[in-house]
Write a structure and sequence with these properties.
The structure is a homodimer. Chain A contains twelve helices and twelve strands. Chain A is an alpha/beta fold. The longest helix of chain A is centred in the middle third of the chain and has 17 residues. The structure holds a DNA duplex (16 and 16 nucleotides).
Chain lengths: ~350, ~350
DNA sequence: TTGTAGGCGTTATCAT
DNA sequence: ATGATAACGCCTACAA
C-alpha cells in the first residue's frame, strides 16, 4: 500500500532526465555510467513502469478479453487455459467475463469493449443475433470468435463441427449394438444446440432409427438430471438403451439421474457426452465423449489473434478443429446374453 | 476494427468544449440544450470513454486481479464466481491469473502488480514464503488473501479452518463405523497440506486410530489416482475402509482408482473429499465432502476489498468461514449384516 | 549520448 | 453554465 514512484523520481535520484530513464529501462543504448545510475535508482525506489501510462502512450493495454458463457463449465476453463497457452510469452493478461446467457448484455459488452480495456477479444457465444454479429464485425479491437458466427462474416473464427461430432457418437452407439438412442439436447435457441440437433436428426436418417429429442433448458448438470426424467418417461415397448447428451454436463446429469433410478450403466443405458471435459475420464463409469478440442481451440484463437495484431489488414480467416470420439466405459458394447450354447453371455 | 472517437471529436460535432462533453457524460448538471447536443453527438459517433485515459486520470483501473493456483480446479472457478458476485455492480473487471506452483513467479507477479493494471488483488496462494508475505504486505494496491498468510500479518484475510474440516470428516467416518481411515494428503509443502495433515493427526489421537498418511504430489485427480495405489499397498490384516482426501480432485482420483481395482464404494471403502466442489454431488457414488465455502470466501474477499478501498486506513481484518460437512453416498454407514441374532458381521 | 517538450484521452480546476 | 488549461505517467521525435 505504498505509493508508486514514477519516472520523474527515478530521474531525480539518478540525476538524469526522464528520457534517459525511459530509454535505459526499455533497453535502448546509453552510456554505461547513465545506465548504471538509472538501474540503481530504479531498483532502490522499487520502480516499475505504470501499465496505464504506458498503455495510454502506446495505444495498447497488453490485455486480452475472454468472454464465455459460464466459467463454471469446465469446457470454458479448458478453453481459457488454451488461450493462456497460445498467448504464451507475450505477457498479455487475461480479462475474463462470464457473460451469462443474456444476449443484450453480450452485445453491450462487446460494444463497451470500445472502452479500450483490452487489445483484443476472444469470445465464445452460445447464441448469436444480428446485433451481436454487427457488434463483432465493427468492434474497435480485433475479435476472434470461437464458435459459430455465420457464414461469410468477416471475423476471425475457430470452428469445430459439432454436427459431425454427434454423428460420430451416434454411429458409435449403433455400431456397438444400441437401438433406441435418445438425444438430450441443450437449448435449441443456441448455436451448439441447433448444430447438435441437426447432427442427431441426420444420424437418425442414416441409421433408420426414430429420433427422440428431449430439450434441456440449459447446458448444466441440473438440467441434464431433469431431462433424464423425461427420457425415462418416453413411451414405447423397449426403454431407450442409449443417450447422447448435448454436452458433458448434461451427460453427467443424465448419468446421475439414471443411476439414481437404478439403471445399470452401461449395460442398460449407454451415455455419450460432448466436449470431453477433464471429468469425463474420471466419472464412474467413465464417460465416452466427443472431444471438440476446447483447449486447442483456445490456443488457436490466441494464435489467430496474435497473427491479426501483427497484420491488421489481412482477410478474416477460419481455422477448424475436427471432433474426435473418445470411447470410454459408458458406451461399452452390448453383449448378447446366452440362452443357447454357442452364443455369448453378458456378465 | 474502426478507430474510436474521443471527447475532442464529440465536442467538435456538438459545438461545445471538451469540458462540457465530459461533464454531461458524467452526469453533472448542464444547460438542457448543451446536454442534448452532447448526447446526440456522442451517440452519433458511438463514443465510449476510453478506459485507459480515464484510468490514468483517475488513478484507478476498475480492475481487480485474481490470482489462483489452478483454474482447472473447480474450487477456484467457484471462488472466482464468488468474487464476481461480491464485486456486484461496481463494474469492475476481473483479471485472472493461473499462477501455477512456482513461488518465485508468484512473488514476481505480486511485485509486478505495482505496474498498476489493477486496483486490488485477491490471491489464494497454496504456499507462502517470507518473500511472498513481504510482497503482499508492501503491495502498492490493496490485497486480500484467501487462505493462510500467517498470524499477525497486516493483510486483509479470508480464512477457513481446514484443520477442523478434516476433524469433521474423521469423526463422521468413525461415527459411521469406519475403523481404518487413511489420509491422502496433497503436497505437505503447501499451507492447506500442512493444516489438513495436522487435523488428521489430531483426529487420530482423538479416536485412537493409527495415522496412515499418503502424500500426493499435487492436488489433482491424477495424483489422487496414483496415491490410491499406495493406499492399496498399505500392509496390515485389514484393508483401509475409508480415505479422507486432501481435496475433491484427490478424492475423485482415489475413487476412480478404487473402483477400477474392483473395490465396492462405499461398502468396502468410504471416501471423503474437501472443498465440496460442484461435481461432488454428481459423482457416482456422490462424494461426501467438507465444504470450505469457496464461493462465499470469494464473495467475502470482494467485500473486504470494497470496504478497504472505501477506507484505506483501517486496520487489517480477518473474516472466517466455517467448514461444513456435506454427507453423501460415498460415506454411507457400515451396515452390519445379521447372521445370528445379536452378532455382527461386516458385509 | 542526452535533454526538452509534446501528446496519448480523460477529468477537474479555475476563470469567465 | 461553460471554456481554456493543467495534469495523470509514459514514450519518443527532435534538438542539442
Amino acid at each position: 500500500m505504498t505509493r508508486r514512484p514514477t519516472v520523474v523520481e527515478v530521474a531525480q535520484l539518478a540525476g538524469v532526465s526522464i528520457a534517459s530513464v525511459s530509454r535505459v529501462l526499455s533497453g535502448k543504448s546509453a552510456r554505461r555510467d547513465t545506465e548504471d545510475r538509472v538501474r540503481a535508482a530504479a531498483s532502490e525506489l522499487g520502480y516499475v513502469p505504470d501499465a496505464t501510462g504506458r498503455a495510454l502512450k502506446m495505444g495498447s493495454t497488453l490485455q486480452v478479453a475472454l468472454a464465455v458463457d459460464d466459467v463454471g463449465n469446465p469446457v470454458y476453463t479448458e478453453m481459457m487455459q488454451g488461450v493462456e497457452q497460445g498467448l504464451g510469452g507475450t505477457g498479455a493478461r487475461l480479462v475474463v467475463s462470464s457473460t451469462g446467457h443474456d444476449l443484450d448484455d453480450l452485445v453491450a459488452y462487446v460494444r463497451g469493449l470500445g472502452r479500450g480495456h483490452a487489445d483484443a477479444l476472444v469470445i465464445s457465444p452460445l447464441q448469436r443475433s444480428p446485433e451481436l454479429v454487427d457488434a463483432l464485425v465493427h468492434s474497435p479491437v480485433p475479435v476472434v470468435v470461437v464458435g459459430d458466427v455465420g457464414e461469410g462474416v468477416p471475423v476471425d473464427t475457430v470452428r469445430t463441427d459439432s454436427r459431425a461430432g454427434v454423428l460420430l457418437a451416434h454411429r458409435h452407439l449403433v455400431g456397438t449394438g444400441r437401438s433406441r438412442i435418445a438425444f438430450v439436447n441443450g437449448p435449441a435457441g443456441t448455436s451448439p444446440g441447433r448444430a447438435r440437433r441437426e447432427g442427431y436428426l441426420e444420424a437418425c436418417v442414416e441409421s433408420g432409427l426414430a429420433p427422440e429429442v428431449v430439450e434441456a433448458d440449459a447446458f448444466t448438470v441440473a438440467a441434464g438430471e431433469d431431462a433424464w426424467a423425461r427420457v425415462a418417461a418416453l413411451s414405447g415397448r423397449r426403454r431407450p438403451d442409449a443417450v447422447i447428451a448435448g454436452n458433458d454436463l448434461l451427460a453427467f446429469g443424465v448419468m446421475r439421474g439414471a443411476l439414481s433410478a437404478g439403471r445399470r450403466l452401461p449395460r442398460q443405458l449407454a451415455v455419450v457426452g460432448i466436449d470431453d471435459t477433464q471429468f469425463a475420464r474420471v466419472f464412474s463409469p467413465s464417460l465416452t465423449s466427443v472431444s471438440l478440442g476446447a483447449r486447442e481451440r483456445g490456443r488457436l484463437a490466441a494464435e489467430l489473434l496474435l497473427d491479426r495484431l501483427a497484420s491488421p489488414g489481412r482477410d478474416a480467416r477460419t481455422v477448424r478443429v475436427e471432433p474426435r470420439l473418445e470411447v470410454r466405459e459408458s458406451s461399452a458394447p452390448v453383449v448378447e446374453a446366452v440362452r443357447t450354447p454357442g452364443a455369448k453371455r453378458s456378465s
